[in-house]
Design goal:
With about 450 residues, the protein is an alpha/beta fold. The protein contains 17 helices and 17 strands. It folds into 3 domains: about 55 residues, 3-methyladenine DNA Glycosylase II, Chain A, domain 3; about 250 residues, TIM Barrel (Alpha-Beta Barrel); about 120 residues, Rossmann fold (3-Layer(aba) Sandwich), CATH 3.40.50.
């Protein structure tokens, strides 16, 4: 049963030393009770308190690490059901499958395509995290051979997918140092699979058709000394998986139900890439730790990674670009000058349309604390004084000779004030960035 903040406080040193980063021991106790702090943050806690509080103060969802080094994937340790309550901390790992039954040419081609699933969006590099090696051949030596080949030719972390203990052992012999996720434990083979996970120090995925069976299995496996677990509810449709993920998260957070206090893995391959990516996107939102997909074409994976990037961006800290003057193309003293805010999505949307116009231009990203044009304007973070200061810092007078500034159509109301403040002519541009190519080719002069 979860302890209250006051019950936890009674077991703390009560010195208010602030070593934990909180103002008082009571404040620290309250955060422990809310799972927003860890007991290890208090350097002076007694052994007695550690024994009593260790389990009670542990995160409701255990942190599990797959892989090693810079490419390891951390999942779990989330504290809220909804992102706006705080934020989500560990982005869902995205894994693409590769079968060990492919011929040499097809296997190499698919591995190369998986390794190249990298993109740049709003100035951020995004890519998949894991490769799921599937034991489709049923041959231990084949499975081990393909696993070794993947290990030597990828930077991604690994998932080994097999229900055969012998085949799993063979694969682990060539990659255990990579700390892959062992995926394949179930009610029939959990004991030898758990022994393998314990021996090799690897996390273990546990599969069952119902949450009750999952909870029972995690307790048994934890009892033999394996606690780095990932849950996998084997269901046949998106609805059942989504409901299961939601129930797991609620049980862990609302009920402090430890047998389900682990991150979850989902797999919904059905031969239809569109449906598969749509399902995986839903699972990222609620509440998968890892999603495994068969799709490996860029046009299939890019939307999935975009959803993840949006979901796991801190809503209290908008993604921003550096506020400064940017050059698009081979600019000169006659090039047009546009301004927008330093909200990444806004800036890169504008930049993309300017590039599409093929008209070399300057874009002035104005500091608005990473908010969009209308949001910044309504909050008085975007006004003639802010714009004038940004223009002066960018030394625009030395860059161009025409003294004309293209302003977003959504803030046309600022045109007169900008002209009065800066002595530049304010040209009202289109309301939508998509109108910029036509504007720059036909209206700008």
């Amino acid at each position: 049963m979860a302890l209250t903040g006051l019950e936890i406080y009674k077991l703390l040193p009560k010195t208010n030393c602030k070593k934990c980063g909180r103002a008082t021991c009571l404040a620290f106790a309250m955060q422990l009770a809310q799972k927003k702090a860890e007991l290890k943050d208090c350097p002076d806690v007694s052994d007695e308190a550690k024994s009593k509080l260790g389990e009670a103060s542990a995160p409701p969802i255990k942190l599990v690490t797959i892989g090693t080094g810079d490419n390891q994937v951390k999942i779990g340790e989330e504290n809220v059901l909804f992102r706006h309550d705080e934020k989500f901390y560990h982005p869902t790992g995205v894994s693409v499958t590769i079968g060990d039954d492919l011929d040499d040419g097809a296997f190499k081609d698919r591995l190369d395509r998986i390794n190249n699933l990298k993109f740049t969006r709003v100035g951020t590099d995004i890519e998949i995290d894991l490769i799921s090696i599937q034991d489709k051949s049923g041959d231990a030596s084949k499975f081990a051979e393909r696993t070794k080949e993947v290990c030597g030719n990828t930077h991604l972390s690994l998932i080994l997918d097999s229900t055969s203990v012998d085949n799993m052992r063979a694969a682990l012999e060539v990659c255990a140092d990579k700390k892959p996720l062992i995926h394949g434990a179930n009610s029939d083979n959990w004991e030898p699979m758990a022994a393998l996970a314990k021996e090799k120090g690897c996390p273990l995925s546990v599969s069952a058709p119902s949450l009750e069976e999952l909870a029972d299995l995690t307790e048994k496996i934890k009892g033999v000394g394996v606690d780095d677990l990932v849950l996998h509810q084997s269901a046949n449709n998106t609805k059942d998986v989504l409901q299961g993920l939601t129930k797991i998260r609620r049980a862990a957070l609302r009920k402090s139900f430890r047998p389900l206090g682990y991150p979850a893995l989902t797999y919904m391959g059905n031969g239809n890439p569109g449906r598969e990516i749509a399902s995986a996107s839903a699972f990222i939102a609620k509440y998968a730790g890892v999603v495994v997909v068969d799709s490996c074409e860029p046009w299939q994976i890019m939307p999935l990674l975009t959803v993840r990037q949006n979901i796991f961006t801190d809503p209290q800290k908008p993604v921003q670009v550096q506020p400064k003057l940017y050059e698009v193309g081979q600019v000169n003293e006659d090039s047009p000058v546009l301004f927008t805010t330093n909200f990444s999505l806004t800036y890169y949307t504008v930049e993309g349309e300017v590039e599409a116009s093929r008209v070399p231009s300057y874009i002035l990203a104005v500091e608005t604390e990473g908010t969009s044009v209308l949001t910044a304007y309504s909050g008085d973070k975007l006004n003639e004084d802010v714009i004038a200061k940004a223009m002066a810092n960018a030394q625009l007078d030395e860059k161009v000779k025409h003294k004309k500034l293209i302003i977003p159509g959504l803030v046309a109301v600022l045109s007169a004030k900008i002209q009065e403040k800066t002595k530049w002519e304010a040209l009202v541009g289109p309301k939508e960035a998509s109108g910029l190519p036509t504007y720059l080719k036909t209206t700008w002069h």
